[in-house]
Specification:
Elements lengths: L1 E7 L3 E12 L1 H7 L5 E12 L3 E9 L5 E2 L13 H15 L1
Antiparallel strand pairs: 1-2, 2-3, 3-4, 4-5
């Protein structure tokens, strides 16, 4: 598990914790009975003056696809806080 800070548009700061997430249970056994399916999960805390504290969870598969749920069904929409977080994480990870 790692921790880092990212800067979002509007000079907002966010604290990120990341780690491996394993898809288990019934769905995990159906999708891949022989191997574990893992993704990188990002737990992000953002504080905005007008909105207060907001917590988001994003998942990134090994192929680079981002989602808002562990199964990969819901992708982050453009022009949302989640898409800003996704872009900031990609920039941070490309530099480190």
């Amino acid at each position: 598990m790692s921790q880092f800070s990212i800067t979002l548009p509007g000079k907002r700061q966010a604290q990120v914790k990341s780690g491996k997430v394993f898809l288990k249970g019934f769905l995990g056994r159906i999708l891949s009975p022989q191997k574990n399916i893992s993704k990188t999960g990002y737990f992000v805390r953002t504080e905005t003056p007008g909105e207060g504290l907001k917590e988001s969870i994003l998942y990134q598969a090994k192929d680079g696809k981002w989602s808002l749920d562990p199964e990969g069904q819901k992708e982050p929409e453009e022009n949302t806080i989640e898409s800003e977080i996704k872009k900031a994480i990609e920039v941070f990870e490309s530099q480190h």
